[in-house]
Amino acid sequence: MIWVTWRRYRTTLVVATTVIALLAVATFACGSIVRNAEGARAFGTFFGCYGTSVTVCRAESALSATAVLAAVLPVLLGVIVGVTAFSRDIEQGTHVLGLTQSVSRSRWFWMRVLVVFVPISVAMAVLGAVLEWTRSAAPRGNFGYVSGSPFDYSRLEFPLFPASGATAGTYTLFALILGSAFALVIRHTVGAMVLTLIVATAGMVGLQVGARPHYAPASIEARPLDGSAQYVAYASSGASFPGWTIGSGYVNTAGDPVAVDYASCEQAYAVDYVEGRPDETVAEYEARSDELFEEQQRAFTDCLRGQGADHLEVRYHADSQFRRFQLTEAALVLLVTGLVLLPSLWGLRRLRP
């Protein structure tokens, strides 16, 4: 039965694993260039090297593209391979031959999982491991997505997290099993592909947004009410912050969130430019500018305090928890994959020779 399944799907399997292997080889080559270059980052801009011949910059950009592709490839494999591994036989009626040759439904199903799905999932895990290796070149733990960016890019975020060893492999297996489930239940190739695309994408996004922030208690850093912390309260990007920032905001002395009316506080910065005077030197002009800025800072801080804010809290997960989060999410995805097998087996029971 293994040989029959291999002959039936060898083209699909060879093409899929070859594409993944080529990506892994290209990633290794680009990673070697970046790792041996002084001051290089593990991820660069897609367009920053246009018109130039800077090898390192092109290698950084190639790694950026590969990371994004590796993050979305599990969904594509689920749509193309997971669905067609079963729907093609069902629509053509060739499954009848297999199920009437003293082959049980379970064996007919699991042979495809073993021969087709498992090798592809393992290949994706290898690609993710190679991508992880390339990121060790980033200085200070900064995985800047755009070369020269002032922002830190945590390994716990998209696309770096799903494009890593454990999650890349388990996400692929999940998408493949999901595709087979829709193929066996609705028995329509196009419909199964559309549903696989939607559900697999929603599942990955749901884990990123809804589950991953809760894999561990968030660390909290308290920052004083001064200008150095104001920008963090406007967004959760966590610029120049060593980890994955999941939230930030002003709180009172008891640690309760404070709803700040930024519109009223921004009046402190109504004057954003200091006119130069004909009779003053550059040093005098800079001193006046610094004095104005300090006054604006004090006015903004007083406005925040007047609304009950005591300090700024930044909630984050340290990048050092990467391996823990990887194993947690991989286990969670495998659990969900096991649940997805239930409709697959139900559809398999309904399948008639």
UniProtKB/TrEMBL annotation:
Disulfide bond listed as a keyword: no
Transmembrane regions: 12-34, 62-87, 108-131, 160-185, 192-211, 330-348
Signal sequence coordinates: none
Keyword entries, A-Z: Membrane, Transmembrane, Transmembrane helix
PROSITE patterns per UniProt: PROKAR_LIPOPROTEIN (PS51257)
Superkingdom of origin organism: Bacteria
Protein name stated in the entry: ABC transporter permease
